[in-house]
Structures are given as structure tokens and as C-alpha cells.
Amino acid sequence: MVIKGKKGRGIMAVVGQPKESGETSQEREDSKTVSELMRRLDEKSREADKLKKKAGKLEQEVGALTQMALDREKNSKDTAAQDDKEMELEALRAKADEFDRKGNLLDAFHLYRRIIRLNPEDIGALYRIATIYYSVGMGDKAAQALRFILELDPGQQKAVESLAELERGS
């Protein structure tokens, strides 16, 4: 049995086939729903973009803070190592000076050499080595040490005077 409605379109005319002149109320409602969903999707997309930008900024800040922490840690370690080296140099100087005062030139000489290995530009230790060389009759080595001091720091008046005295005495 076929039900015929308006102008012979059958069952579709009865259940809501769109009219040729426009949309049905269901289609208008569906269109509104789709429009609302698209608007919400655009809104959520803009929110997601904002969140991505914030996340990018936060990631940069975390990176910068991490680098700062690593730099501080490295500086801390460098400072600690430098402090350890300075303490070792001070202890060596004190012991070398003690040996030197007591006339134990060989032990003093070895300790001054260790100081120079740790700090090749230690003018005080270089000068003490020059005086020990001179004390044991090795004027040429004393002059060599004094010239090296003057290469490092031409304004070292004690080295200038000692070298001049050595050269006059030679």
C-alpha cells in the first residue's frame, strides 16, 4: 500500500521532505546547532593557541632558569676548586717559607717549584727560587728566573735590582 500525499510524492511528503520553497524547521535547527558548534570550536581553537603560546613562554622561562641553575652550580664548583687551590698554595707557601727561614733550601726549593706548577705566574715563589739559586752559587739560573719574572711583570723592582746586581757581579 502506497500512501500518496501532496502532488504524488508519497511518504516523504508526510514525514517532512523539504519544501521546494525553503528549509524545514529541523534543518534550520540543525544549521543553528552546527553554527554554534563551529563557533565553540573556533573559540576553543583560539584558547588552545593562547595556551600553546603560554606553554612556549613557560618552556623558555624553565630553560632560562635551568641554565641559571647550571651556571650557579658550575660557578659554585669552580669557586670551591679555586678556594681549595688557594688553600693549598697558602699551605705550601707557609711550609716553604718556614724551610727557607730555617736554611733547609732543598725542601724550600721543592715546595716553591710545586707552587709554580700550581700557579706558573707566582712572582713571589719565582723570586724565592731565584734567591735560592743565588744562595747555592747558581747565578746563571738565578738570572734566568729573574728575567722570567720581568717578562711576567716588568715593574718588579726587586727583580730589576737583583738582576742588575747579578750582572754587575758576573
How would the blueprint of this fold be written?
Layout: H1 11-15, H2 25-101, H3 105-118, H4 123-135, H5 139-152, H6 157-169
Helix pairs in contact: 2-3, 3-4, 4-5, 5-6
The major β-sheet equals:
none
Helical fraction equals over 70%
Average pLDDT, rounded to a whole number, is 85
Topology pattern, helix = H, strand = E:
HHHHHH
Straight-line N-to-C gap: 140 Å
What does the overall shape look like?
A: rod-shaped
Q: Which structural class best describes the helix and strand composition?
A: mainly alpha
The radius of gyration computed from the alpha-carbon positions, rounded to a whole number of angstroms, is 46 Å
Helix segment tally: 6
What fraction of the residues are assigned to beta strands by DSSP?
under 5%
**Low-pLDDT residue spans:** none
Instruction: Give the tally of β-strands.
Output: 0
